[in-house]
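Pinned message: reference record for Lipid-binding serum glycoprotein C-terminal domain-containing protein
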Amino acid sequence: MARACGLGLLLALLLPMVSASMPGTVVRLNKAVLSSVSEIGKAPLQRALQVTVPYFLDQSGEGLQPTRIQILNVRVSRLDLKFIADLGVHLLAAANFTFKVFRIPEPLELRLPVVLQADARVAQGSIGTPVVSISTCFSLFDNAIAFDGSNSSTPALLVPLQQHINAVLRNKLCLSVSSLVQGLNVHLGTLIGLTPVGPESQIRYSMVSVPSITDDYISLGLNAVLFLLGKPIVLPVDVTPFTLPQHVGIDGAMATVGLSQDLFDSALLLLQKAGALNLDITGQLNSDDNPLNTSVLGRLIPEVARQFPQPMPVVLKVRLGAKPVATLRANNATLQLQPVVEVLAPTSNSAFQSLFSLDVVVNLSLQLSVSKVKLQGTTSVLGAIQLSVASSNVGFIDTDQLHALMGTVFEKPLLDHLNALLGMGIALPNVVNLHYITPEVFVYEGYVVISSGLFYQR
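Predicted structure (tokens):
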């Protein structure tokens, strides 16, 4: 089945330019992919064309002699693919068949050049996968040539022998191509499988419309649904249908993938609902790297020094109440977090008491990259962290004095945690064994584009 993918790699990551439903993902395969697919497709096509030829009834001697014929070798010397607007893909293959005719007293070897042409229709399957079928197929046969280059030794045999072979191959070759395509459809079905995002979350892509096909590309509209504990993540507002402009990314790239703002919003909502963005930052006594203790706080807040004459470690409980906001502008992606940070210290009975809590606004620069089939991200802080007091059990707090401390004890743990999450990545549309190679990521107003090559790992 996987071998069938060489012929169908062209169709294995069909990427669209039509409107997609929420959240919208658009992918387009361009002409540049065709030559690569043609080379990969030769080997599986050669194997598929290695069919069985029934016995030939030889009438050149006395009576009818059943003669066995075997295909020794099939060599596909040429495989060309091109897009057919509103249909799918046209295939043209040139192959040389080598036959061994077990004729008595001496066997005969023949070479038969064949040209095979077929049109493959690409449609939308009932379960949201691409479905490929052969709509037309035919073969053109040249004259068979005896392997020793001499046809004069068997002139009476060659004509009926070739007629027999042609009649058999005319049907069997097209049936073999159809069978190859059916195996490809099973492989294409892996597009809709659930792919893990985190321990309790997954993403699933599926087609939402019929393919859009022109002479220059083939495309699909995909719906990306994120799941948390088996339940879909649904954005709280209606989303706008996403379309991918014609000229974005890199001209000549094999694949162009468009990811809408809604996909990013859905992914961030999943992280919030899963609690993945929450963290606890624990201070250590006698630590120059993390001066998060009551002694340091007491220098800034007198009431803390009064309540804790002896240094005690402090814990920051970072909880994200508001949904993170991703903003996509031309060549610029940013992320805003608005966590509530509660500052706690241990009491004598080993419980923790709340000293105060802060409303925090953190603006982050978001850098995106692709590894194999995953979109990954890293962040860095933009500007100063904004602080305001939400509640206090230690009297007045001067937030200006807290800024330097928060930058030391809060910023780095937050970035480490966030970058570890974003580094896990989220799967892009793909089928088994197909990877993105040399990808480049572009940020546009309201969407992201990935221009990439494709690599099929056999």
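Pinned by admin. Summary line: Residues 45-190 form a domain with the Bactericidal permeability-increasing protein; domain 1 fold (CATH 3.15.10.10).
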